[in-house]
Amino acid sequence: MTSESKLTVRYAETDQMGIAHHSVYPVWYEVGRTEFIRELGIGYNRLEKMGAMLPVLEVHCKYIHPVEYEDELCIHTRISSMGVAKIQFEYTIYKCGCGKPVNIGTTLHGWVDSQTFRPINLKKKFPDVYQMIAAAADSDDTIYASQYEKRGWKEKWVKKGVLSFCFSFASSWLLAVKKAVSFH
Q: Is 140 a known active-site residue?
């Protein structure tokens, strides 16, 4: 399953040059991820009330082409990998109506208990939720951001001065979650 979210670049999200600031892309990823979860029929509120949370362990963000104030963007979100304790989302951002991505990225999350923040095995603790998410992960047959590099787009954009940036958000407790959780 691939979810599509749309947004318009706001003035507050741009820098002095009128270009969307690099720090807003992870916020846009969250918009895509939240819509993806909502389209599954779960929603983050419901997950948290059930006792599960999805803290971010890693964010990877690759800037391909700048976007500007009032550009309309389409965020395509999908699950790129999933285990019983971790899930990775992949994002491809386009200017609406344009077939080439302006940004690609991923976020890695660990499933944790909302009370203790300790890692959980989603398949054991919430088997119905696990099955629903696993089915969405397996049902996709579209082209993903990772495939653009395989098609030679990487070389084209690198020649144009692609910025590649990797965010790594990890407080001590997130590092502990990351070390304790592994794909099965």
A: no
